[in-house]
Each structure stands twice: as C-alpha cells, then as structure tokens.
# Entry
Amino acid sequence: MTEATGGIDFEDEGSGIVKKFMFVNRKAPYGTIYALEGLEVVLISAAFDQDVSLVFLDDGVYQIVKGQHTKAIDVKNFSPTYRALEGYDIEKLYVLKESLEERGLTVDDLLVDVQVLDAAGMAKLMAEQDVVLSF
Amino acid sequence: MKFGILVNEGLYQHQASDTAYQFAKAAIEKGHEVPRVFFYHDGVYNSSRLTEPPQDDRHIVNRWQKLAKEHNIDLVVCVAAALRRGIKDENLAEGFRISGLGQLVEVGIQADRLVVFGD
# Structure
C-alpha cells in the first residue's frame, strides 16, 4: 500500500485474480472516437489474462460490419483490428439480435464470428460479469 | 467497498465529470474507498492545469485535486488519449499522473466495483 497508488497494491499481476470483463460497444465506428479508444482498452486487457467478452449493440454493430472504407472521411479504418482479437485470445464476441435486425444486418455482414443473443440473453450475460465497461 | 471510477468526458461540456466527483465524494462520506479515478477519452482534459473557469463557477480540476489529496486518491490520465489531445506533463495539474490503460484494467481487477461516467 503506497501513497502514490491510492492504497492499492498494483504490483500483483501474479495474484491470479481473474475477473469477467465485458466491453460494451454501443457507438458507430466513426463520427466519435469512442469505438477506437474502446478497442485500445480491449487490447490492453488481453495482457492481464482476464476473462474478456465484447458486446456490440445499438450502432456499435456497425463497428464489425464488413467492407468499411474510410478514405473519403480521412479517418483510419481500424476494423481489421477486430479480426486480430483472436490472436490475443479474445474470442467471446456477442451481438444483440435486435440491434442487428433494426439495421437490416445479418451475421453474414459481419467481419468476425459472433454469437447472437436476444435482449434477455444479453441481460443474463451482463449480470454474470464482474466489470462492465461501456464505450 | 472499493470503488474504481472511470471518467470518459471532458469537463464543463458534459455533466459526467461532475457526477463522477459527486459520486466519489458521497462514497467516501459513506465510508467507502476510492483508490483510483481513471480519465479516458475527453476525460483527460480534467487534468489540465491551464483550466480557468469564471470565478463564480465550480473549479473542476481543483476540486479533483483537493479530493485526491484529502483521501489519497490516485488520479490517472491515459497517456495515449492525453497526448492525442495535447495534455502532457508540462500542462498537467498537480496531483494527476499520466500512465497507461493498464492502470484502468488493474483498478477493474482490484476494486469491488468499477463505475463508468460518460456517454
């Protein structure tokens, strides 16, 4: 316990605590920075050996739509990073069924493999988490 | 209980930072601990020492500093988000420190609850 770290012992990566971390992606990939900076947290979390899941709902489902082209808005197309998540052992990806349907999308439009859950299934999964970070 | 806090919005434009502060203060008054507040996205602006609100308004930066000093709270600003927005050591308010996103994941592991403020 030290002054600088506010009373938490932060030198314990070997403590073996594994929590269920859920990252909820709710916003379109471009237009705001939430999706990009959210993805950065996901990538960092992989280094901590936690039980990580990603959820895409509302306009967040657009983050993983295939065939993104961003040249005309001069913004980096970061969608290929979602395909790399598997390499970080992040394999639990969930999409809200209602959000897909409202936008006329199906799993065939997505660039990664996901599990589709309805609202009740999503609520149940969220209730099981230790940490829910929403971006 | 130990509460980690994540602030994702800038100060004054959005109420998230105010609400996070009120939450932290209330939690401490109730006997809980707030070991760390992490600032991400535009939340990094909460740490600018150049902030000068009108005198009849609350001073959000000073308010965080005071709370942190009194209750030993670690105020951490994400380095990547900060550099992207022009926050660096030379204009960082006293009591804040710039570090990595690992500090956010860590407090998520260590705290009993991680509470997120922002859109």
